[in-house]
Amino acid sequence: MQPVSGAALELGGQCDSTTVMVFTIKGGRVVDPANGCDAVGDVHVDGERVADRPGGATEAAVIDAAGLIVCPGLIDMHVHLREPGGEHKETIETGTQAAAAGGFATVACMPNTSPVMDSVETIQLVRQRAKEAGYATVLPIAAITVGRGGRDVVDMASLCDAGAVAFSDDGDGVEDDDVMLEAFRLAAQLDAVIIQHCEYKALSAGGVMHAGEVADRLGLPGLDPRSEEAMIERDIRLVRETGARYHIAHVSTAKAVELVRRAKAEGLPVTTEVCPHHLLLTHEACANRDPNTKMHPPLRSAADVEACLTGLADGSIDCIATDHAPHAAEEKSRGFLKAPPGIVGLETSLALAIEAVVASGRLSWADLIQRMCHRPAEILGLPSPSLGAGQRADITLIDPELQWEIDPAGMHSRSRNMPFAGWRVTGKAVATVVGGQLVYLDAAQSSRACGLISRLN
Ligand SMILES: [Zn+2]
Question: Homologous superfamily of 6-70+392-456 in CATH?
Fold first, then answer.
């Protein structure tokens, strides 16, 4: 594992560090949509909070942010940290290091761990591990059903009290109508959000990639897009009946996007997310049978990609989430048919999102930041991210011009499964502040913050 950056680690890798940091992020382009701000300015940090003036120290440390974008800390509402039970793929420590290096101050983690996060004890364990080892705030998502078995709905009230921010059986959809209805009814009572992995196994079974001409050409079993769309249709009917808040994980087909658009127009509390890979790659990327292009939902057609881009731009798709899904090299080397689906995404998400929607002119920087920060916060019921005085100092610094090559070997995640190796991209998170602690500083960029580093070392 590569260290984040020696300096950053020493400065305050642990989110619960008691070191009080006082510094000013100077002369950056401050993009703070909650305060209607997009202008060059300074952001002052005093301890855990944003301050309205430089801190009390006579010579407060300074991060020179000239040329950088300064925004509220990014939030990824869909990651797999694999702990407990999958530590050979990722741990809370390595996964949150990857998050911090990707500019994410907060991640929400999925419950398909071992044991499954369906009990108060497991939620508490994850929160405790995150407190001890986390480089980002970790918000646990509890399972909808016991053991993710699809039969018995969990004790949602206790899990909410224990700190679960949402409920999902991600990896599987809840297929049984009665079970799903009960889950929606309970969630509505608690004002909790249900995140559904939309897939009917009867329609997708055996499929390893998008059903279409590429699968036919390769002779690989196709995965019918109806497996995703039919579950969304069923769920929207149940949302209409129960009023529950419903979030669709990793939307990927044109029809699915249209279903969400219509549900929103109807005024239903339906939201969705899209993954960067579904904005940039089509099923043609699977042509070389690279297992790193195998994911669920699969890479789709060019028309589906276009629909996702349009949906993200017009607000039908609320946010960008990675579905960061680490797998060990040995697991991914089993060939396209047998390799587990999924790719890591925390350290490439921002650059890929910039490429997909900012460089192409579909979204402004402020819009992108809303979709990677404010909308996920809103969906998860978190306080609205802001750089106003008194707010928690969760801050991401982005170099919008930095050109870099995606190199899996240089990543902080324990796993390296991604289809973007060798891509030349522009734009990168160069520093991440969580609760006033500088948890990541791009080593190559550290000269910008040398005043801070030298002073605090
Ligand atoms: Zn999923």
Answer: Urease, subunit C, domain 1 (2.30.40.10)
Question: If we measure between CA atoms, which residue out of 276, 274, 278 comes closest to residue 247?
Answer: 274
454 φ, ψ to 5°? -65, -35
Cα of 170 vs centre of ligand 1, distance in Å, is 5
How large a percentage of the chain has pLDDT more than 90? 88
Among residues 105, 136, 108, 137, the alpha carbon closest in space to that of 396 is found at 105
Read off the pLDDT of residues 307-322 as tens digits, 9 standing for 90 and up: 999 999 999 999 999 9
Cα of 284 vs centre of ligand 1, distance in Å, is: 21
CA of 173 to the centre of ligand 1 (A): 8
Q: Report the top-level CATH class of 73-380.
A: alpha beta
Catalytic residue check, 304: no
Residue 13 has pLDDT above 60, yes or no: no
**Residues 118, 172, 323, 442: which is the catalytic one?**
323
Q: Identify the pLDDT of residue 58.
A: 54
Q: Residue ranges of the domains in the chain?
A: 6-70+392-456, 73-380
Do residues 379 and 318 lie in contact, with contact meaning Cβ atoms separated by under 8 Å? yes
Residue identified by tokens 């791009």 is: 442
* CB-based contact 413:95 (threshold 8 Å): yes
Q: How far is the CA of 172 from the centre of ligand 1 (A)?
A: 7
CA of 53 to the centre of ligand 1 (A): 44
Give residue-wise pLDDT tens across range 423-454.
999 999 999 999 999 999 987 665 555 444 43
Q: Residue 269: is its pLDDT beyond 90?
A: yes
- Give just the sign of the alpha carbon dihedral 3, 456, 447, 75: positive
